[in-house]
Amino acid sequence: GCLCVLTVSHGFNVGTSGAKIFSQLAAEQFGYSVQQFKNSQGKWLLVGSPWKGYPQNRKGEIYKCEINSPGSSCQSLNLQSNISNGNNINMSLGLTLTPTTKNDGFMTCGPLWAQLCGSLYFYPGVCAEVSPQFTLQSAFSPAVQTCGSLMDIAIVLDGSNSIYPWEPIVNFLKKMLENLDIGPQSTQVTVMQYAVDTSFEFKLNAYQTKESMINASSNIQQKQGLETNTFKAIDFARKNAFLASNGGRPGATKVMVVVTDGESHDANLRNTVIPACDSQNITRFGIAVLGYYIRNDIDTSKLIAEIKSIASKPTEKYFFNVSEEATLIEIVGTLGDRIFNIEGLTGDNFKMEMSQVGFSAHQTRNKDVILLGAAGAYNWIGTVVHQNAQKSDVLPKAAFEKVLDDRNHSSLLGYSVTSVSDGSSEFFVAGAPRAVHRGQVIVYSMNSQNQPVIIDSQRGDQIGSYFGSVLCPVDVNADGVTDLLLVGAPMYMSEEKSETGRVYLFTITKGILSNQGFLEGSQKNARFGTAITAVPDLNMDSFSDVVVGAPLEGNGHGAIYIYYGDKKTIRKQSSQVEPNFTESSTHIKYISKLGKDTDSDLGRTFF
Ligand SMILES: *[C@@H]1O[C@H](CO)[C@@H](O)[C@H](O)[C@H]1NC(C)=O
Ligand SMILES: *[C@@H]1O[C@H](CO)[C@@H](O)[C@H](O)[C@H]1NC(C)=O
Ligand SMILES: *[C@@H]1O[C@H](CO)[C@@H](O)[C@H](O)[C@H]1NC(C)=O
Ligand SMILES: *[C@@H]1O[C@H](CO)[C@@H](O)[C@H](O)[C@H]1NC(C)=O
Ligand SMILES: *[C@@H]1O[C@H](CO)[C@@H](O)[C@H](O)[C@H]1NC(C)=O
Ligand SMILES: *[C@@H]1O[C@H](CO)[C@@H](O)[C@H](O)[C@H]1NC(C)=O
After folding, report:
1. Domain residue limits at 276
2. Is 598 within the bounds of a domain?
3. What's the superkingdom here (predicted)?
4. Choice from 243, 278, 281, 283 to test ligand 4 binding pocket (greatest atom count within 8 A of CB)
């Protein structure tokens, strides 16, 4: 990617001949975000490169580029190595970049910072505050939580003579434990072994860490025995495994995993033991190892029926079947996922697990409060997090439910965030580019109880236009009152069915938006409006001006349009279009934020 810093020259035009050019790898999305920055050492251009590390990873990084030092190249701030908690492998740090006023530093986020729960990745996102001297001050993740709620799992292993060899059973156990989030605040595990009778290998409270539990599991020896008293074992586990005196936690979800390779010798107990488990809300997984039966040519149907009768309903979720001991290990991933499913933590039940906090970020006028967009919250309905030094307020689903009318979980509220001011009050604005397919912008404030109150909302007027994906407030005459809110709809289709793109103009009165028409690019498929920014007075008439990016203009070369401010608005005729100098900076924005936002599962991470 390449970025250019321009100088104002000859008359009222922005000169490109003396442009400073900073380059780094385009594949690492250098230039996706940019921010001018000043500290005691000088003037800088901060540049996000959210795929730095590609193709090995997409950790991302921020570069500092010195503006007044000709020929100097940009240097990495090396923030990524200091954000190591959780899973930073593809966190995409630098996707957002915003100045912070409290410490005169800035904030950058990696919305794809992940948390591994079992074998599932969640994406709560991470944000980092950086000091004016470019050191990481704090990294925080407002949406991170323990993996699922408290869960106590009893693993009941058949150790009778017919199990052979024993080693695969131990390997299965170890692999299964590796996939769980073991700890006193998350998942606890007890292991029991049975043949004729049943005994504990270790209890729920025996080990506090996964490593020590796995170590203990590798030392479990086969019990041996001529009988397979499966129902006595289940009953023993039901009565003893979850007792508080053995480490059971009140309120924890109770799960039992029964692994056996033969029909029981005590099937007569089935009709009392299984209903007793049900009344104690113990969710049961039944795993039939068919190895002994297959080796000895015994009909497996009775065994399968018995294990199915142990498993919770629906059977297809809780019953597993493997042809030999050695293949047990292959079901571990699925078993782990299904254990998480007990919590209902998939699909329609996501709250903040996929929220991608930091997908957008904005410093409000209230120095304390930073808005963080969380476009993946509540099944991709999205929300906004109000972050201050003391706490994070994740706005509840109910706050925007009515105004969004999101029946299909895809509004992506928080894709963009900003705030506007009428001189005394500040109003918050969030974009939801897929709300009811047309896109929406919502203006809200916080009442004295710190609850969000919807002030106004506007929908886009064309399906698929991505109205609201980009927001830009403009104070044209620099009096502290927001004169215009510009709203990008970069995929707005012109009559020739090409994505020309539009930017809508709204004036704001006490938070109420009033449509004042739109700006439009001139070329087909240009995606005009993908990036919008207000810039200080370029033509020296004392009004702020506006620059709009059209990243695909000219067969993907990209162009910017300059609009001059005029009293309390901007002129709708552009004063200048620069087609040649910015090859990829805005182009990248298209690739990363819009281009992969499809309905496929992968696209759900919309990056
Ligand atoms: C991280 O990103 C790289 C490069 O795109 C990809 O090959 C890899 O599979 C990703 N890893 C995870 C855990 O998502
Ligand atoms: C990262 O941490 C190391 C060790 O604490 C510190 O020396 C370095 O300055 C930090 N880097 C940044 C960019 O904060
Ligand atoms: C692993 O288990 C062995 C035997 O039970 C024990 O002596 C050792 O201390 C354990 N090591 C760790 C790191 O827990
Ligand atoms: C089992 O779950 C039901 C429904 O959630 C609940 O009403 C009941 O109290 C639970 N029973 C026990 C023993 O926890
Ligand atoms: C159990 O496994 C056998 C072979 O391994 C397979 O033929 C059979 O369909 C399986 N039964 C069920 C109910 O999954
Ligand atoms: C939700 O999606 C279904 C199927 O994709 C569609 O038929 C329906 O119109 C959508 N509803 C809304 C409110 O968008």
Report:
1. 151-343
2. no
3. Eukaryota
4. 281
